[in-house]
Write a structure and sequence with these properties.
Elements lengths: L17 E4 L2 E4 L11 H5 L15
Antiparallel strand pairs: 1-2
C-alpha cells in the first residue's frame, strides 16, 4: 500500500492538519485555505525579518 502524501500536508499558517473537501483544501485548526498567504506564512512568526509597514495618517 502506498502512503497518501496528501494526508501529510500541514498548514503554512498555523501548522495544523489540512482536510480535503470537494475541490477545496482547508486547515482543520484555522480554517484557512491551502493557498492562503500572509506575512506570517511568508516570513514566519519567529523570524519576521521584513521591514515594518508604515501607514500615513488620513
Amino acid at each position: 500500500m502506498k502512503k497518501d502524501k496528501e494526508k501529510n500536508k500541514i498548514c503554512k499558517h498555523c501548522g495544523g492538519p489540512l482536510r480535503h473537501d470537494i475541490g477545496d483544501v482547508s486547515c482543520l485548526m484555522c480554517s484557512r485555505s491551502e493557498a492562503h498567504i500572509c506575512d506570517k506564512c511568508l516570513f514566519g512568526e519567529k523570524t519576521m525579518s521584513h521591514p515594518k509597514k508604515h501607514y500615513k495618517a488620513a
